[in-house]
Amino acid sequence: MFFSLAAVEVGTHLYWEIGGFTVHGQVLLVTWLVLAIILGLAVVGTSKLEQIPKGIQNFLESVFEYVAGIAKGEIGEYHYRPWVPYVGTIFLFIFVANWLGALIPWKLIQLPEGELAAPTNDINTTVALSLLTSISYFYAGFKEKGLGFFARYISPSPLFLPINILEDFSKPLSLSFRLFGNVVADEIVVSVFCLLVPVFIPLPVMILGIFASSVQALIFATLSAAYIGESIE
């Protein structure tokens, strides 16, 4: 008996038909909220720039310096600046998405089908983010070295060609499944504790989940920058 892998699903979803494609509506709803929060902070923090930053402007500049430090450390001092926006966007999106999933009781909001959750709780989102990193990885290498970039596949010997190709496939797989697995596992653990001991235990577990969510955003952004830096070297 044959079946399509695209038909394999986990849980129930709110389906929308957009441009001939079937998408998970509950993922788009929370994704739009994440983007609105990030854009709102950016607009408010840069609307009245001051020489001595304070408030939201100070917070945004601190975040920028932190992200720029990640890019500089992984990509290198001479090449990191063009990649700060990408690394920063990836970090902020995953960070805000994970925190929304950990802090907001989405299960209290009823939908016709499915339930709201962090966008990173859906494998489609994490795979899309990983593919963006892969595209950036190839673009950076090709821009820096031209066709010479593909010589890496036969280095140090043509015998390593299958292994080097497999390595490029394994990078987005590891990125996507690591993020997806950790977010889903955290939500399952919190849900189980809330059912078993609904008063005392869930709070410290939720705090641990918030910490883990932040670490996952840092890991994804750092590895993305490291892969880009590797292709440029």
Reconstruct the topology from this structure.
Elements: E1 15-18, E2 21-24, H1 25-46, H2 56-75, H3 84-103, H4 123-145, H5 161-196, H6 202-232
Antiparallel strand pairs: 1-2
Helix pairs in contact: 1-2, 1-3, 2-3, 2-6, 3-6, 4-5, 4-6, 5-6
Family: Belongs to the ATPase A chain family.
GO molecular function: proton-transporting ATP synthase activity, rotational mechanism
Keywords: ATP synthesis, CF(0), Chloroplast, Hydrogen ion transport, Ion transport, Membrane, Plastid, Thylakoid, Transmembrane, Transmembrane helix, Transport
Description:
Keywords: ATP synthesis, CF(0), Chloroplast, Hydrogen ion transport, Ion transport, Membrane, Plastid, Thylakoid, Transmembrane, Transmembrane helix, Transport. One of its GO terms (molecular function) is proton-transporting ATP synthase activity, rotational mechanism. The protein is globular. The chain has one domain. The protein has 6 helices and 2 strands, in the order ββαααααα. α1 packs across α2, α2 packs across α3 and α3 packs antiparallel against α6. Helices cover 65% and strands 3% of the residues. The chain has a two-stranded antiparallel sheet. The model has no long low-confidence stretch (mean pLDDT 82).
Mean pLDDT comes to 82
Please write the string of helix (H) and strand (E) elements: EEHHHHHH
What shape does the CA trace take? globular
**What's the helical proportion of residues?**
55-70%
In which order are the strands of the major sheet placed?
1-2
Largest sheet: 2 strands, antiparallel
Number of domains: 1
In short:
The protein has six helices and two strands.
